[in-house]
TrEMBL record:
Cytoplasm is among the record's keywords: yes
CDD domains: SelB, SelB_II, selB_III
A GO molecular-function annotation: translation elongation factor activity
InterPro entries from the UniProt entry: Beta-barrel_SelB (IPR057335), EF-Tu_GTPase (IPR050055), EFTu-like_2 (IPR004161), Elong_fac_SelB-wing-hlx_typ-2 (IPR015190), P-loop_NTPase (IPR027417), SelB_WHD4 (IPR015191), Small_GTP-bd (IPR005225), T_Tr_GTP-bd_dom (IPR000795)
Domain Tr-type G: 3-228
Keywords (A to Z) from UniProt: Cytoplasm, Elongation factor, GTP-binding, Nucleotide-binding, Protein biosynthesis
Main function: Translation factor necessary for the incorporation of selenocysteine into proteins. It probably replaces EF-Tu for the insertion of selenocysteine directed by the UGA codon. SelB binds GTP and GDP.
Pfam families: Beta-barrel_SelB, GTP_EFTU, GTP_EFTU_D2, WHD_2nd_SelB, WHD_3rd_SelB
PROSITE patterns: G_TR_2
Name used for this protein in its record: Selenocysteine-specific elongation factor
Subcellular location(s) of the protein: Cytoplasm
Amino acid sequence: MNKRYFTIGMAGHIDHGKTTLTKALTNIDTDRLKEEKERQISIELGFAPLYDDDEIQVSVIDVPGHERFIRQMIAGVAGIDLVVLVVAADEGVMPQTKEHLEILGFLGIKTGLVAITKISKVDEEFIDLVHEDIFEELKGTVFEHSPYVLVDSLEHKGIEELKTLILHTLKEQNMRDAKGPFRLPIDQVFTVKGQGTVVRGTVYEGMVEEGQTLKVMPTGLTVKARQLQVHHQPAERAYAGQRAAINLAGVDKDELERGDVLVSSEHFIVTRTIDVAIRVVENLEYLIKQRMPIKCHIGTAEVMGRIVFFDRNELKEENGEILCQLRLDEEIVTKRGDRFILRRPSPQETIGGGWVIDPKGEKYRFGEKTIESLESKKEGSSSDRIIAALVEGKSLTIDELMKRTALTEEVLKDELLAAPFHLYNGKEYALTRVMEEIEEDLYDRLRDYHHQYPMKQGLNKAELLQALQKNYPKSLLDYVVEQAVLKQTFKRKGQYVSTGDFEPHVPESWQKRTENMLDALKQDKLKAEYLTDYIKKAGIPDHLVPDLKRFLEESNQVVSLDDKFYYHENVFSDAVTQLKQGTGSEFEVGQAKEILGLSRKYMIPFLERLDAMGLTDRVENKRVWKIK
């Protein structure tokens, strides 16, 4: 896939012209709600297509600027690839602008442009002073050295220049991971008459296809992507970086909410305790105290919880990263590296933000040892990062590992030579311990199966692997089975797999009765009755009959004439020898009846069995021997 998909965001103070600028760029008014029209401010996230060609597609999110709508702003910014900071020339950087800047920093936004709007409201001589003042305020932020464009949205000044700069900047950067499992944090849920439930959001990673079965996390609901839309146009697929609306089958609107996450894989972690690295804002008004209630904004979710420190009991000022833990009141879906914002619920203020070190945090003791452990997790060696990626992805190529670990190809190839990693199929890597776990799991399943069905050859390979295919790629499972066969840990006979030391056998409690039954069958020679009659006379229970018949035939102790009559193997072999010796190269049915003394009831099935076994060929009314 050569085409790349990006979402950019407009951020800035209320009434600095974000929505007007978005309309000038896209010719779409993103203020849709009646309340937004009346109050002339954005309340919900607004979306519009900016550009689309064979190489690149770009969407715009207009995020609300008013402090009351900070949640919506965070939900929008969390999924974007580039931010356009909008600053009005007649007002400059305002308090809201500064809060947005802090949030953008905490969310790890690395690419930004500055649009200085409303330039027609100031004199030309004043522009240089405005520019200098704005960039003085932007020192120490992602926008410190960002390019800027002077625009007036109403008069369409600078609009094409800004658009060109946006496209040029995006073409220089990589898009989000479209190869990994699909993930879309939901930021809007609604219904469409005649269509049902629809969700909307930015595809964080991976790709979704029309008709694909998905999971809603953390609830675990299974849904189907009935229809997809990108920019209000039907689409067969939606890729990382795109804004997508998905019509879901199998779920009602009331079962979903903003903050839920739509995924294609169960590998994503659902958790309530996360180990994190945070930074705090420069000018905190109040102390941050141990176990203080916080509001965590992660993806599109807003979850209450408490902050837990391991090296202090309160925090007022801190320039560096603080390693701590968030214990949340509700489950979220997250992974290492995800960004979040922390706000104080009351009085409301942004207190900081950071990134997830470990989505599966545990309870730790207060003290330096815990901080050292968290520091080790945070730093994560190259090997640690590869291991983490393979724990999640199970089996990944070099290209996939590069995207997931942010390591270069040279570093990866060097690290992957070590023992924890295993190359298979010439291109995919897996953890040796994961492969061992798979083999152990398969072995346990086979052992249990042999215990339950001791007379069967083994378990059908497709059935053996079915349960594990939800968690592992089939290519990896197939490889593990083949390696286990080579090591003789497993045996394979046709489509059946068994443990290496297993031989089909009659359960010990029924062995003597089975021997008696076979003796009776042998004594009756060619005048044998139905096999089931012998089995019942021997006192063997009905539920064992199908497996016992199959086992006796597969172990060559009996030969079936049809599904009712069976001969003891010795009796059948003697009869074949007798018939061969009593005939020439060919014979007729009547001749065979005279030699073996069989009635038609036995004779026809006997001869058909010879044909089926490849001992004879039927030519018109004769049989021709194929053996010498």
